[in-house]
Fold each of these.
Amino acid sequence: MTWLILGLVLFLGVHSIRIFANDWRVRQRARMGEGAWKGLYSLVSVIGLVLIVVGFGLARQQPVVLYVPPVGLRHLNALFTLLAFVLVAAAYVPANHLKAKLGHPMLAGVKVWAFGHLLATGMLHDVLLFGAFLLWAIVDFASSRRRDRAAGVAYPAGTVKGDVIVVVAGVIAWAVFAHWLHLWLIGVQPMG
C-alpha cells in the first residue's frame, strides 16, 4: 500500500500545484524556463503514475475488503464510465457544448469515473485510488472554474457537429477500453 500512496501523493501532488501554490508555480516556470518546468512536471508525473500502477498491483495481491457492493452497481459503473469517456473526449474536441458549459470536462470525467468505481468496488486499495482521484478532481474542478471566472474566460460556443464528434469518439474509446484494454491493462474484465 505504501507504493500506491506514494504514487498518489506524487502524481496528484504535482497536479495540484496550480490549485494550492500557483504563485510559486509561476515563479518556478519563469526561473527554470517553460521547457525545463514541463520536463520536471512530466518526470514527476510519470514516476507517480508508475508507482500508482505498481502499488495498486501489489495491493491487489493482499486485498482488504471494506464493503461488498451489489452487482447492479457494476453495471451502473459501466454507464458512469461511458459518460466519463464522453466528457474526456469533450476536453479535446473543439466547439462542443460540454466544453462550453463545463469549461473543464476532463476533470468532470475524472469525477464521474472515480465515483462510479467507488460504487462498484470495495477493497481498500480501490477506495484509496478512486477516492483520492475523486477528491482531487472535485477540488481541481472548483479551483479551475473559480480561476476561469476571475479571468473572465469564455469558452467557444458548442456546435452540433462538435457534440456528435464528442459522443462518437467517447463511445468508441469506451467500447475499446471496456471490452479489450481494461482486461489487458488492469487485469479485470468489466463487461464479463
Amino acid sequence: MLNKNIVSFIGCDAEYEDAEIVLYGAPFDSTTSFRPGTRFAGQAIRNESYGLETYSPYQDRDLTECAVFDSGDLELAIGDSGLVLKAIEECAHTILEDGKLPFLIGGEHLVTLGAVRATIQKYPELHIIHFDAHTDLREDYLGVKLSHACVLRRCWERLGDGRIHQFGIRSGEREEFKWAAQGHTALHPFTLEGLQETIAQLKGKPVYFTVDLDVLDPAYFPGTGTPEPGGISFLELMKAVTAVCANLQIIGCDVNELCPGYDSSGVSTAVACKIIREMLLAMRKTRERRIIY
C-alpha cells in the first residue's frame, strides 16, 4: 500500500483503500536532450493546483465527488535510467494489482516506459494513444536507447505493429516518419485529426494514454524543454483528452514534459493542472454521459 502525500493535487485526498485512481509522480529528466527541469513538475503542479476550482464547468463534475489518492513523487535514482524505470514499473504494478488506475505525473517522457511495462503484464492486448509534438521513435539517441527521444520505439518493441496511435506529431527525423509509415504506428501528423475514428476503433480495448504537453503550441505552453511551434490550442487538447478518457477503457495514463522553470508566469503549470483535472473527472467510473470529440 502507498502512503498519502502531504501536499496533494487539489481535491485528491481520498484514502488509498477507497481510491479508484492513484496519482504518483516521477521527478526524472536525466535523458532530456535540450532544456532540463521536468523533474520539478510534480511539485509545481500540486502547489499550483490550489489556484483551480475542484469543479469543472466543462463537464459539470467536481473532484470532491471522485475517489483519487495522491501518493506524491517517487524517490528515484536520478542518474540511472534503468533503476528509475524499474521503480516506476513496480509502483504502477502495485496500483494495478490493487485494482486501481495509475496516473503518472512526469518528468520527461521516458518515464512512460516504466508504466507501460507494468501495464502490459496485466493487459497484454494493450493499445497506446500518444499526444505529442515529437515522434519519439528513434532507435537510439546518440547511442542511448533509454532516452525520451526513443520512448515510443521502446514501447513498440513490447506491443508490436498497429497498437500505438500518435497525434499532433510535427517534429522528428525523416527516418522516424518513414518507419511509422511502414505500418509500425498509426501516426497522425500536425493535428488531432482522426481521433474520433480511433476512439471508435478502440472501444472495449485496454488503452494506455500518454500526453506530452508539448503537443500544445508554445503560445499556450511555453514551459517545456523542447518547444515546437505549430501545435494545438488548449481548448483542442482539453476536449480531446476528455473524449479519450470518457469514451475508452483507460487502464493507465500519464501527463509529462512540463518544465515550470521556463515559464515564470506560471501559466504553463496552470495549463498542466487543468488538463489533469479534466482527465481525472472524465475517467470517473460512474458517468451520467459520454463525451464525443
